[in-house]
TrEMBL record:
<protein>
    <submittedName>
        <fullName>Cupin domain-containing protein</fullName>
    </submittedName>
</protein>
<dbReference type="InterPro" id="IPR025499">
    <property type="entry name" value="KdgF"/>
</dbReference>
<dbReference type="InterPro" id="IPR013096">
    <property type="entry name" value="Cupin_2"/>
</dbReference>
<dbReference type="Pfam" id="PF07883">
    <property type="entry name" value="Cupin_2"/>
</dbReference>
<feature type="domain" description="Cupin type-2">
    <location>
        <begin position="37"/>
        <end position="95"/>
    </location>
</feature>
<dbReference type="InterPro" id="IPR052535">
    <property type="entry name" value="Bacilysin_H2HPP_isomerase"/>
</dbReference>
<dbReference type="InterPro" id="IPR011051">
    <property type="entry name" value="RmlC_Cupin_sf"/>
</dbReference>
<dbReference type="InterPro" id="IPR014710">
    <property type="entry name" value="RmlC-like_jellyroll"/>
</dbReference>
């Protein structure tokens, strides 16, 4: 087992930060904090399978052609390659897991 790493908080957009919480080549856990309503997670896609847990707040997610409102306690999986993003409706925190690890976040 390797030593625990402490990862920096990175600004990813207006009112949005990201912090890697744990990583392994096969899995990564990342927290995204949204400080205000209207903050956005830009539309994007990646080859990683992603699960998202809404720790707090409320968000509108765009998942391909689908829109979904989620709030604290909700979770869902985003398949590899699906274009997705979100808009914060109430400030909060998302905890995402990626497999394999998002090396671009390191």
């Amino acid at each position: 087992m390797r030593a625990m790493a402490v990862f920096d908080v990175v600004k990813t957009g207006e009112g949005v930060t990201r912090q890697v919480l744990a990583d392994h080549p096969e899995l990564m856990v990342v927290a995204f904090c949204f400080a205000n309503a209207g903050a956005e997670g830009a539309l994007h896609n990646h080859p990683h399978v992603q699960s998202t847990f809404v720790e707090s707040g409320r968000f509108r997610f765009f998942l391909g052609e689908e829109q979904r409102e989620v709030s604290a306690g909700d979770s869902f999986v985003i398949p590899s390659g699906l274009t997705h993003g979100c808009v914060c409706l109430e400030p909060g925190r998302l905890v995402d897991c990626f497999t394999p690890r998002r090396d671009d976040f390191l």
